[in-house]
Amino acid sequence: MKIFYAVQATGNGHISRAMEILPFLERYGQVDIFLSGANSSLELDAPVKYRSKGLCLYYTDKGGLDYWEIGRKIAPLRIAREVRDLPVEKYDLVLNDFECLTSLACAFKKVPSVNFGHQASFFSPKTPRPAKKEWMGEWILRHYARASQYIGLHFKSYDDFILPPVIKREILQADPLDKGYITVYLPSFSDVTLSHHFSPLTDFQFQVFSKEVSKPERRGNILFIPVGKNAFNKSLINCHAIITGAGFETPAEALYLGKKLMVIPIKGQYEQFCNAAALEKMGVTRIDTLDAAFQARFHQWMNNRKKITLPLDHSTESIISFLMHNCTGEKKDALDMLYPEFVFN
To answer: Which conformational region is residue 110 in: left (phi greater than 0), alpha (psi within -120 to 50 degrees), or beta?
Structure first.
């Protein structure tokens, strides 16, 4: 079997998930990777056959999307050419992790595809949303990477096509410790903004993962660390708590490890507000931004002793087994035994 695997590279979560599932996908055939996007901080540790600048997201230094920069970097002629040239018709299976060009190429060439990943879970109305829905955000989640089939991932199985998160082996096999410091990963904020809000909290030590430093730098109670897979995993495994965006992979891993979690959804990213709504229902602390009220909210969060965990009794291997047997038309009743708590159609 020849598998075309489109990976969105506008965020580290997609890259991280791809590196985890690739060895299991390769058991089913030859996997050719299409990497789309240019502003993730992690490198995909695998051969990439097709590459594109795709449609990238850019941020201001205040925690929001930079719409001007996003619009300025769109190149319609390049996109049209890449959609025409992407050889999706040569593959037995097109697997799409929320990548727009692959979706357009499949529609143009009438090739079936599978949208597999966190964003696919939003095709269910049962998946949590914020109290106030945004029509544009809903439209993007439904139309940015259209496919002929959807298999989603989320914190819980909100519907019968939604599976649990893919957790990295390093996290699954870790023996978590509490060394007292707080891990911070807020890439949509500048180091200056983070310093302004964390430096006054002198009773606490922070490890901030930054795109602005090339080597670790100590500034008072803050250690700035370049974004990297191994360093971040180590920090997460040994931290007391973590403050991060309302993405998917990092909150899921933090909850699996039993870490105290605070999330700040990126302004303008509707998906993160949906995730924040789901996390709030689980008891996770969510704030909207870093402002004058942050220190009070921080102390309130630190003093909250409620423990929230994300128990998992699955494996990445079984998730990919379900994916492949459902996408290729094969049926396997034994899959119900792998996930007795889920119902699959």
So the answer is: left
State the Cα–Cα distance between residues 279 and 128, nearest whole angstrom. Answer: 9
Structure tokens at 280: 């709030």
Q: What is the pTM (predicted TM-score) of this model? A: 0.85
- Third-level CATH fold of 2-164+313-338: Rossmann fold (3.40.50)
Q: List Cβ neighbours of 84 (8 Å cut-off, separation of 6 or more).
A: 105, 108
Q: In terms of Cα–Cα distance, which of 78, 67, 6, 18 is closest to 42? A: 18
CA distance 292 to 303: 19
Residues 208 and 174: their CA atoms lie apart, in Å, by: 21
For residue 275, how many C-alpha atoms fall within 13 Å in the half-sphere facing its CB? 28
pLDDT tens string 80-135: 899 999 999 999 999 999 999 999 999 999 999 999 999 999 999 999 999 988 88
Is the distance from CB of 242 to CB of 250 less than 8 angstroms? Answer: yes
- Residue with tokens 């009220």, as numbered in its chain: 293
CATH of 169-303, one of 3.30.470.20, 3.30.1330.90, 3.20.20.140, 3.40.50.2000: 3.40.50.2000
Whole-angstrom distance, CA of residue 129 vs CA of residue 131: 7
Q: Which two tokens stand for residue 258?
A: 């039993």
Tell me the two tokens of residue 17.
């998930």
